Amino acid sequence: INQRLNNYDFLVFTSPSNVEAFSLCNDINTQNIISIGPSTTKQLKSLGVEKIHQVHESTELAMAETIFSLI
Asked: Which of 2, 21, 32, 47 could form a disulfide bond with 10, CB atoms 3.0-4.6 angstroms apart?
């Protein structure tokens, strides 16, 4: 998607390729970044993102738990 997003509460990334694709058109500089796992977190960090909420296991349930814990 070649569209810039301006209004969001959280960014949720489920793969390194999601991070790469999103970063082509958008800055990732929010404090509400959620990552599904270590390889996605590594990709975010390579772009200079520092504050990342990484789920405790790479499952949809763990992702939901992490999101609910932050709202």
From this structure: 32
CA distance 66 to 5: 22
On whether the CB atoms of residues 52 and 44 are closer than 8 A, the answer is: yes
**Residue at token pair 């520092």:** 50
Give the span between the Cα atoms of 3 and 54, in whole angstroms: 25
Looking at residue 10, its pLDDT comes to 87
* C-beta separation of 5 from 24 below 8 A: no
The CA distance from 4 to 35, in Å, is: 20
Phi, psi of 42 (to 5 degrees): -60, -40
